[in-house]
């Protein structure tokens, strides 16, 4: 079952990379980066679940990463909005 989650996490990362490389709109690129991050988080949680007592270090890294990802997404959306407004003026 862990291999399934590893595969899905890798697939999410590849789909996000494809979106990042092929899309030119800011919002779609931000979504692609978030998709890549979600794939990495899924892989880390799958690796943490390999051990009978779940590895607390990987879980803590994922929780910290989620907080950083939300903050970075908010900043990126704000910058994209400001950039779009400047372009239309």
From TrEMBL:
Subcellular location: Cell membrane
Membrane topology note: Multi-pass membrane protein
Keyword Oxidoreductase attached: yes
Membrane-crossing residue ranges in chain numbering: 6-23, 30-51, 57-80
InterPro entries linked to this entry: CPA3_antiporter_subunitC (IPR050601), NUOK/Mnh_C1-like (IPR039428)
Keyword entries, A-Z: Cell membrane, Membrane, Oxidoreductase, Transmembrane, Transmembrane helix
GO molecular function: NADH dehydrogenase (quinone) (non-electrogenic) activity
Domain of life: Bacteria
Enzyme Commission number(s): 1.6.5.9
Record family assignment: Belongs to the CPA3 antiporters (TC 2.A.63) subunit C family.
Protein name in UniProt: NADH-quinone oxidoreductase subunit K
Top-level taxonomy: Bacteria, Pseudomonadati, Pseudomonadota, Gammaproteobacteria, Pseudomonadales
């Amino acid at each position: 079952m862990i291999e399934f989650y590893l595969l899905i996490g890798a697939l999410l990362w590849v789909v996000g990379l494809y979106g990042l490389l092929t899309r030119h709109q800011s919002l779609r690129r931000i979504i692609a980066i978030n998709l890549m991050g979600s794939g990495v988080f899924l892989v880390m949680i799958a690796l943490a679940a390999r051990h009978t007592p779940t590895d607390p270090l990987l879980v803590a890294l994922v929780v910290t990463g989620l907080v950083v990802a939300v903050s970075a997404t908010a900043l990126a959306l704000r910058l994209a909005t400001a950039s779009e407004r400047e372009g239309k003026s």
